[in-house]
Design brief:
single chain, alpha+beta, 3 helices, 3 strands, 54% helix
Length: 82
């Protein structure tokens, strides 16, 4: 993946995160894009209340990952890191 492709993917992922961000912020949380690797895996970091919430796994899978994969189908996985 060249720099232009990576930048384009990053913009698409950030745009997808913007669609879910208002819901996270309503609950005092947020999400940060950490990286997109060459295997098309995204790493994110949950912030604020989302970091320690017992529903964070569901938020990650049903909300964040779904939004990213819908907007950027070439992404094969989304992983939350601490």
């Amino acid at each position: 993946m060249n720099i232009i492709e990576k930048d384009s993917l990053q913009v698409k992922v950030e745009n997808a995160l913007e669609t879910i961000r208002p819901f996270l912020k309503d609950d005092g949380g947020d999400v940060e894009l950490i990286s997109i690797d060459s295997d098309m895996k995204v790493q994110i970091k949950l912030l604020g209340n989302c970091r320690d919430c017992n529903m964070s796994v569901m938020t990650m899978k049903a909300g964040i990952e779904e939004a990213i994969r819908r907007a950027v189908p070439e992404i094969i996985a989304v992983e939350a890191i601490k």
